[in-house]
Amino acid sequence: MKKLLRKLAPVAAAALLLGTAAGCGRTRVTLETYPDTVVATLGDTKIYLDEANYMARSNQYMMEYSYTMYGMDPAGMWQSDLGTGTTYEAYSKQSVMAGIYQTHVLKEKAEELGLVLSEDELKKVDEAASQIMESMDESVKEATNITEERLKEFVTDNALAMKAYQEAIKDVDTEVSDEEAAQRIIRYIQVKDGDDAEAA
Known about the structure:
The protein is mainly alpha-helical. The chain contains eight helices and four strands, in the order ααββββαααααα. The protein is 54% helix and 6% strand. The chain is extended, with a radius of gyration of 23 Å.
């Protein structure tokens, strides 16, 4: 597993490293500089490479672990085509960044609405960050260089995002009628009778 993690480039880093040319030289990006390296912006919000890398590596580890648990070799899965001309690696990168964008948008909405985490919720954030850090596989720690302090920021952002989401859907009718829930399969069969279109 560790060998595979080392072979695969960090999900969000690849695009960044290709585009860090500054003038005639290139800016060297290392794990140590990830927390200060902007990988994307969302309005005035800066998204840093350490967050993208952590989310990507965590996702990578879980997917490869799942494949291994089912007795499959995950070595070739990242380059497999999803049938749309997109590899699973590219799709994973897009999904990770979309999730980060969503979290930051919802966090900003929480701030607009004046939503804050209660003392009990902040305590749960601390506990969650500690538990994640303790249970994190060494290969993920090595590939992300994540600190518990930074991890706590990610967990806090997610908690605020969830609070904004719950606020947004509190008045939404989530009841689904039997008619809306019904699924139907319709099959069409074309019968041809020679070259006579009308007869067909």
